[in-house]
Amino acid sequence: MNHDAKTRKHLQRQLDQARSYQEWYEAATALDDMDGLLAWREQDETGMLHGSLMREHMATMERCRQNGDPRRLIRVLQESLYRHLGELSNPDLYAAARSGTNRLVGEFLDAVETSMAFVCDHPIPEVTTARKLKMFRDAERVYGRPALMLSGGAAFGIYHIGVTRALWRNDLLPDVIAGSSMGAIVAGAICCRDEQELTSFFEHPERIHRQAFRWLGIAEALRRGHAMDPKQLQEHVQYNLGSVSFREAFEHSSRTLNISVSPTRTQQKPRLLNWLSSPAVLVDSAVMASCAVPGIYPPVTLRARDSDGGNDSSVPYMPSESWIDGSVHGDLPIMRMARLHNVNKTIVSQANPHVVPFITHPEEHGIKAWAKQAAVSVAHGQLATALKFTRQSLQPGIFRPLVEQAYAMASQRYLGDINIHFPLKPALYGKVLSNPDADDLEMYIRLGEQATWPRLAMINDQTRISRAFDRCIRQLETDLEKESKQEPEH
């Protein structure tokens, strides 16, 4: 083995065994250097970007700032973002090098962020702070915001803790989070905590209650019609989340929690529960419903805060309806999230055991990856079509609901704009319905972090403008509050 091969093997081992993002990034950068990809990152031109036009827009932004012309700068920003947004969202920009993309992306985003701050900080003739704040809020509404979606996955879903911890440690955890099944437990644990509590949650995962599963005996399971004890799951959920309504969770954490639940009746549509659509519903009951996999747990009747009984009482919510696992009809409620929360970028953490084997992973390239994706797409389409015709031809009866659920699972989307995947590890499938011990917990979290690190550069770049809007709006809100306090009383 020659020197370069030994060095490459050593760096690949460092990459695979990294214990922090910094360790991973250093190994990734060294490998990129060996492969000549750092030179690609520094190139002036790449076929994936309209480099000359981007530099022209950047120069115009600079002139507007130097001339103190925020009105002209606003027009340039609007035009430039509209022209280049599609290019900047191209995932191929992040498929070439491990450590990041072409430097022009960062330079352009720097120029946009600096220009937004200039407009925010400098006075515009005849424009009050209140009007400027409205202008930024309207622009942010048009541009949109990112959302994180956590899939189901039973014990595999514990890896979402690692995904979210990696995002949180790099200040990239979105304020809008959705979850189904096990993803709902992790999303709820995050969105029911303020920043201090969230720090403790991420830095001390050993304090997490881990006993979610308890198998019933065969006789009891046959009698009840489900295989696991819902009381054990309820204990797990309430220990890790408490018992709060969606509105109370939002007011405490300032994060918007969304939980998917599916109806047991085919006439009902799936629901996306959150503080806007169902503010009084209790989060723990929504999580229980989202975890109610048919045959594993029984359907759940949602509960809501009793407005007349104080914070310790609850009443049934839609008492005539019962709900099951959200991933049955909508593991990733992308369209509903987009409409309700103005989401323009979806970050998906996918851990479903039946989905993971069919995902093309980031390290897979070339004809082999293309062939795999093509075969999966064809098989997926054929299965969905077959189930569609089967459900249309079946008469109402015992098999109709099962086919309906199978069709819903086969026809839905399981990926988003930016995807983080649970690694394909067949040896772990035996643990998918088992409570993790301390070593398993650490292993799942580490897998989540390692799966997220290669995506951080892309997530950072593609959410920068949204985060810049947030900063400007907060600054203008503060300025407006100061102005109101300085106004003389009449």
Automatic annotation (TrEMBL):
InterPro entries: Acyl_Trfase/lysoPLipase, NTE, PNPLA_dom, Triacylglycerol_lipase_N. The active site is at S181 (nucleophile), D325 (proton acceptor). Keywords: Hydrolase, Lipid degradation, Lipid metabolism. Gene3D superfamilies: Cytosolic phospholipase A2 catalytic domain. GO terms for molecular function: triacylglycerol lipase activity. One of its GO terms (biological process) is lipid catabolic process. A motif (GXSXG) lies at residues 179-183. Residues 148-338 form the PNPLA domain. The keyword Nucleotidyltransferase does not apply. The keyword Lyase does not apply. Signal peptide: none annotated. Pfam families: DUF3336, Patatin. This is Phospholipase.
